[in-house]
Amino acid sequence: MNTFIGNIDAKADEKGRIFVPASYRKILEEMGSKHIVLRRDTDNECLIFYPEQVWNEKVSALRQALDEWDPEDQLILMQFMSDAETLETDSQGRVLLAKKNIEATTSENIETKSNDFVFVGMLDRFALWRPEVFASKKAGQKDLAEKIRARMKRENHNFPPQA
Asked: Of 97, 99, 108, 126, which sees the most CB atoms within 10 A?
């Protein structure tokens, strides 16, 4: 199966329409995904796009982890689902982003250009960031290597040692 990788610059038009990268649309097509589920990220100022099958798997896993009769779990599920919406690409490969979702990609501390974005691949899904916000969150190369190495060791994977 192909995966969503890389980062691709994009611009939204004045109506909030943005082209899903052609390479990502091809993967969605290969997956047979007619819809994309968009959800505001819980921890970062970005939007996450899920092919509908991946979304259904994630929601199923969440649902299994929650007790449907527990009021707090019910609220978690409601809030998680309320921040999601199903999108369809138009004939030109664009999706329409609601104003509230565009606003969710801004950061109080970082000035952004109003229509500049970057799509970032995340294997089975992809994210949409403001370039300036994404740059501020990224770890430096050495820090990233250390974080990856620590997590791979934690999971008992054989990751190459630092040279």
From this structure: 126
